[in-house]
Write a structure and sequence with these properties.
By secondary structure, the protein is mainly beta. It contains no helices and 11 strands. The strands form 2 sheets. Strands 2, 4, 5, 6, 9, 10 and 11 form a 7-stranded mixed sheet that branches. A 4-stranded antiparallel sheet has the order 1-3-8-7, with no helix packed on it. The radius of gyration is 14 Å and the shape is elongated. It starts with a strand and ends with a strand.
Length: 120
């Protein structure tokens, strides 16, 4: 069983910063891509940022220049540093892992989500 556990959500004023962290637990041999998605009320879940095992990041246009994703392959962790937060960044943020090789292979694993609230 592979699980993702997020931490670091909370309340921040516009212009502030938060850092989200996610750790994958279980017997894990490799994870191809780790990333963060978010979902605001009434909106579909959207990709925020992802990073491959090689360290190459990918960002949504709306967060480029403000958010930074990083990954520690040895610890199976991924982090999202969010700066210059805007009210429109307010959402539940979900950690995601794709192509997880454990005792069996998981196509995709999701965390439970952590709420980020940004006040204007």
């Amino acid at each position: 069983q592979v699980q993702l556990q997020e931490s670091g959500g909370g309340f921040v004023q516009a212009g502030g910063s938060l850092k989200l962290s996610c750790r994958a637990s279980g017997i894990i041999y490799s994870i191809s891509v780790m990333g963060w998605y978010r979902q605001a009320p009434g909106k579909p879940r959207e990709l925020v940022a992802s990073i491959g095992s090689s360290g190459r990041p990918n960002y949504a246009d709306s967060v480029k220049g403000r958010f930074t994703i990083s990954r520690d392959n040895a610890k199976n962790t991924v982090a999202l540093q969010m700066n210059s937060l805007k009210p429109e960044d307010q959402a539940v943020y979900y950690c995601n892992a794709k192509d997880v090789v454990s005792g069996i292979r998981f196509i995709e694993v999701w965390g439970q989500g952590t709420l980020v609230t940004v006040s204007s």
